[in-house]
Specification:
The chain has eight helices and 23 strands. A hairpin with a 2-residue loop joins strand 9 and strand 10. The chain is of the alpha+beta class and 381 residues long. The strands form four sheets. The chain has an eleven-stranded antiparallel sheet with strand order 1-2-9-10-11-12-23-18-15-14-20. Strands 7, 8, 13, 19, 21 and 22 form a six-stranded antiparallel sheet that branches. A four-stranded antiparallel sheet has the order 3-4-5-6, covered by helices on one side.
Length: 381
């Protein structure tokens, strides 16, 4: 992308697709990812944000707009590189954050459309490019999908190991402050062939506790459907003693062993830590991974999500279906005032009533008007 030719954000086609260079240098940016069955996500250029279906069912930590740049909790994708320090494909390592205002800051590009979001960044010295594409499928599933593509744009081979790392909150937003610890004791964490499952024993409410009916999952697969090799399902084990989410022991110390499928741990804060097998990319070669973040019924079979989305081919098909769905949804509104930028912007204005209906005033980071309501006050005012 040429910033001299395209200052700021700009549209790349007549379908509302837009692009922005160095989006990580602008605070408070976030993008909505939703479907009409009630899955609501918000994602930033560094993949901060949250994922939920209602006030009482947050898969990830609930956030306000200030948390987007304060919190270390994010959808993270770590790349452990042979002979190099770990690198975050989402820009969330401590060393990458420390370099953000320096000349060696990474090249980052964003492209997004109805309703999908892609961020690409390139390692400053190795010639490794990472693209992370996020969307919520337009069908009935309460899932968010992340497609990760690593490309070797250098002249030398690169040996790497990828670890997806998404903290799993798995409860009501009310528990963020009240009874955070006791509700972590209720967490029932399991590993399956493709990921980590969290099914709390109770939905905690002092007005009357009741059995939990939700399962929170982080699943993953390689491009061909191959499952991860090991898992880190407990947050404190993943970060390690004295560690943090932006410099976790499980990534910085690669010999630290995780758990296999079939493990069961109760009473801890959960972590969707999925490590894949080591691979070597030849110059010009690329490889893809799919990460599935879902909120399911407690009796659901998580592996069915792998059957629907757990390969590069299925991910790409779901992305195209979602793009086509929103294009049809918005096709009834057309405007041509002789200004292509204004025409493109108005396409996004046409989406706003739909977002207000799905998100209300409470389910995106600027949630200044209540908790859980479906109000119609328009934040664009």
């Amino acid at each position: 992308m040429d910033n001299n030719r395209h200052p700021g954000w700009y549209f790349v086609d007549e379908k509302g697709t837009f692009a922005l260079s160095n989006p990580d240098r602008t605070s408070y940016l976030y993008f909505p990812l939703v479907n009409e069955r009630g899955m609501v996500s918000a994602v930033t250029p560094a993949l901060h944000g949250d994922i939920k279906t209602a006030h009482d069912t947050y898969l990830t930590l609930p956030v306000s707009v200030e948390d987007l740049h304060i919190s270390r909790a994010a959808r993270n994708v770590w790349v452990q590189l042979e002979g190099q320090e770990p690198w975050s494909a989402t820009g969330n390592s401590a060393s990458q954050v420390a370099r953000r205002f320096k000349r060696e800051a990474e090249e980052v590009d964003l492209e997004a459309g109805f309703l999908w979001h892609r961020v690409a960044r390139t390692h400053p010295t190795l010639g490794l490019r990472a693209e992370v594409t996020s969307f919520v499928p337009s069908g009935d599933a309460a899932v968010e999908l992340m497609g990760v593509v690593l490309s070797n744009v250098s002249s030398l081979p690169i040996t790497l190991t990828l670890t997806a790392a998404i903290p799993i909150y798995g409860r009501s937003a009310d528990r963020l402050r009240d009874h955070r610890h006791v509700t972590s004791l209720l967490q029932r964490i399991r590993t399956c062939a493709h990921g980590v499952l969290v099914c709390p024993s109770l939905s905690f409410d002092e007005r009357g506790h009741h059995p939990n009916e939700k399962m929170y999952v982080v699943l993953g697969a390689e491009a061909d459907g191959t499952a991860p090799t090991t898992f880190f399902p407990v947050l404190e084990d993943f970060v390690g003693e004295g560690g943090t989410l932006d410099w976790p022991e499980a990534v910085v110390t690669p010999q630290l062993e995780g758990l296999g499928a079939g493990a069961a741990i109760d009473g801890y804060e959960a972590m969707g830590g999925l490590r894949f097998r080591t691979t070597t990319l030849a110059p010009g070669e690329h490889y893809a991974y799919v990460v599935i973040l879902g909120i399911l019924g407690e009796d659901a079979e998580p592996e069915t999500l792998i059957g629907e989305y757990g390969s590069q081919e299925r991910f790409d098909a779901g992305l195209e279906q979602t793009k086509a769905y929103w294009e049809r949804k918005l096709a009834g509104f057309r405007l041509d005032v002789g200004d292509a930028r204004f025409n493109g912007w108005m396409k996004w204005v046409a989406l706003q009533p739909i977002l207000r209906r799905i998100c209300g005033n409470s389910f995106l980071p600027y949630h200044d008007y209540g908790r859980g309501g479906r109000g119609w006050r328009d934040l664009w005012q």
